[in-house]
């Protein structure tokens, strides 16, 4: 049984707008304006909440690790309260997921977003039912690029670890695939664009319409 595991942020959906809005709400609580920009700071957003707080405080000349930890829960709360205002699925993403399922692949998600927030977002987007498994940053004691969350996502989806691949958008996903000993497909429409070529994935994805063919080449199903 072949299994395809997707990253979420920057791979299936552009979540940067809502992440940056949550970070800016924290900076406003601190007495500042909107420090991060939705156009310029997409790549910062996809590195996570602490990275956004660190970047913003550094720009303000006020970086303090304790401030990052203090406001991180506030950021998560703000994000959870407005998780789907700007977020959009990438064109063709769910059609590709459905096509893979129709071919006989098991499909799941392995993300470094907290599991509860990932569940909420997928429910709000109306696509949670398309995925047989969801592993978040806090589902296990470890997170990507450790291989364990990926392996668990494959298991929960009903697949086999040796017959699987990971679809992602960053070096974290590339290193996760290496750790798990499986092929990786990196999207070129995420925050890093075609820079992901330097990570030497087994394949690049420019358009979700091409995904079923790429997956079939990397992990063909037994007939």
TrEMBL record:
GO biological-process terms attached to the record: DNA repair
SUPFAM superfamilies noted in UniProt: HAD-like
Top-level taxon of origin: Bacteria
Catalytic activity: 2-phosphoglycolate + H2O = glycolate + phosphate
Coiled-coil parts of chain: none
Top EC class, one word: hydrolase
Cellular component GO terms held in the UniProt record: cytosol
EC id: 3.1.3.18
Pathway stated in the Swiss-Prot or TrEMBL entry: Organic acid metabolism; glycolate biosynthesis; glycolate from 2-phosphoglycolate: step 1/1
GO MF term list: phosphoglycolate phosphatase activity
Pfam family, one: HAD_2
NCBIfam families linked: HAD-SF-IA-v1
Family from the record: Belongs to the HAD-like hydrolase superfamily. CbbY/CbbZ/Gph/YieH family.
Protein name in the entry: phosphoglycolate phosphatase
Lineage, broadest ranks: Bacteria, Pseudomonadati, Pseudomonadota, Alphaproteobacteria, Rhodobacterales
């Amino acid at each position: 049984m072949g299994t395809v595991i997707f990253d979420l942020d920057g791979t299936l959906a552009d979540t940067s707008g809502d992440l940056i809005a949550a970070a800016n709400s924290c900076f406003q609580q601190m007495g500042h304006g909107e420090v991060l920009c939705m156009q310029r700071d997409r790549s910062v957003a996809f590195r996570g909440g602490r990275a956004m707080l660190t970047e913003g405080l550094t720009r303000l000349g006020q970086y303090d690790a304790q401030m990052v930890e203090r406001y991180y829960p506030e950021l998560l709360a703000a994000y959870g309260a407005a998780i789907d205002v700007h977020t959009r699925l990438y064109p063709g993403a769910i059609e590709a997921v459905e096509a893979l399922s129709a071919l006989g692949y098991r499909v799941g998600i392995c993300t470094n977003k907290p599991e509860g927030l990932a569940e909420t977002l997928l429910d709000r987007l109306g696509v949670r039912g398309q995925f047989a498994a969801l592993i978040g940053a806090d589902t296990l004691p470890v997170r990507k690029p450790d291989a364990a969350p990926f392996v668990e996502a494959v298991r929960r989806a009903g697949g086999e670890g040796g017959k699987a691949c990971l679809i992602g958008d960053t070096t974290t996903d590339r290193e996760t695939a290496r750790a798990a000993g499986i092929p990786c497909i990196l999207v070129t429409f995420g925050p890093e664009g075609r820079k992901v070529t330097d990570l030497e994935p087994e394949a690049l994805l420019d358009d979700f319409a091409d995904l079923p063919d790429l997956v079939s080449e990397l992990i063909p199903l037994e007939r």
